[in-house]
Amino acid sequence: MKSNNIQNNNRTRRRSANMKKRKAIKRRLILITAIIYVFLLLSVLFTFSISLVSCEEKQIKYDIILPATKSQSNGDSVEITDEKAKKEIISSEQLYFDDVLYLPLSVLEKLTDIKIAGDKNKLAFILESNGEHAKFIIDSTDAEVNSNKVSLSGKSIMLDGELYVPFDFFEKYMRGFDLEINKEEETYTITVSTTTEPQFILKAPAQTLAIEEKNVTEITTSPIDFVLDLSSYEEYMNPSDRDAFLFIVSKDSPLQNNYVPSNLTGTIFTRSDRETRLLSKYACLALEAFLKEGEANGITGVTVTSAYRSYEEQSELFQQEIQITGSSEQAAKNVNPPGTSEHQTGLAVDMHNMPSASTAFGETKAAKWLATNAHKFGYILRYPANKTYITGINYEPWHFRYVGRYHATKMYELGLCLEEYLDYINQ
User: Fold this and answer.
1) Of 88, 342, 396, 413, which residue is the catalytic one?
2) What is the DSSP code string of 312-373?
3) pTM of the model
4) Could you read off the pLDDT of 87-114 as tens digits, one per residue?
């Protein structure tokens, strides 16, 4: 009996000890679980705070730096960077619509002599210094620069009384603004030139038929005094069949996909990092005389980057431009669709002395000499700045087209582009 009681007591003590152990393990598990939950919660909060800081640090700002000759604006948005300039910083949230970078015109109105006028559907901003102007239609990509029709990369937007215009409008159509992008700090900076007043690249359409046709004819037959002896090139600059090269290539008059010009000839002025560029023989030798005479006049470094292009090559370029611009309509303003490119004729050439083609080339001594003298060698500047509304192609100071001296000189003296000239002679 006594032995049984002792055994029962021992079992009771063991059960009690086991229960205590289980309770202790349970408490430890609860504590560990609580610690893990707290750690996870802190991790989530820490990660979230880091992402907020990162987003704040990566938020793109837009800086506009202008000479501090204007009255200083009051408000936290204006920051004086030094005695000569001031900076207005605008959050990126105010500048991007559908992934297109915009600029509110009120910023320029406040800090420059640009004035905004118009109604809620159509507004203009006017450069008071010279009377030049641009017009924008709200919720439309259509616009005008000094009466030249242009197309914007995005619609003009009116938001809370502010007119927003795609930023690349200022890159394409204005000068007097220096643009800089700092990718590391992710900022955009506009500096307004202190020496050149803001102005538009596209000027008002020139008045045509500036001189009498009789005088133009005399000009085309007058001898030209070149620095070099170019007599061996005369037939190519001034072909006896003067109408042979006078035609236009466009969407209304396209070339077949199998069209290849005869007598393709390699130009000695091909840029050194390119394969030899080809042109129709007359265009090639006239170009050779053109650039040799240029060198004799101090115009150096101008080389050919593009000339004849096949239908297939043009198709590839056009597809690439669609990827960049997002639509075939926008792409066609920079690159001709296949079959409508003058490069397929072997009569068109791209040439400049810059790393890549840019409208900035048009401001160089070389570009001005080329544009002024091209007609003497049978070439025309094909896409002038003031003819975009007619050609449908943006200004290209590097793109020249061979037509022969007679017609090139008439176009130059009359102030006509190829489209206008063909209409003129057909009347």
Assistant:
1) 396
2) HHHHHHHHHHHHHHSSHHHHTTTSPPTTS-GGGGT-EEEEESSSS--GGGGGSHHHHHHHHH
3) 0.54
4) 455 555 557 777 787 877 776 666 566 6
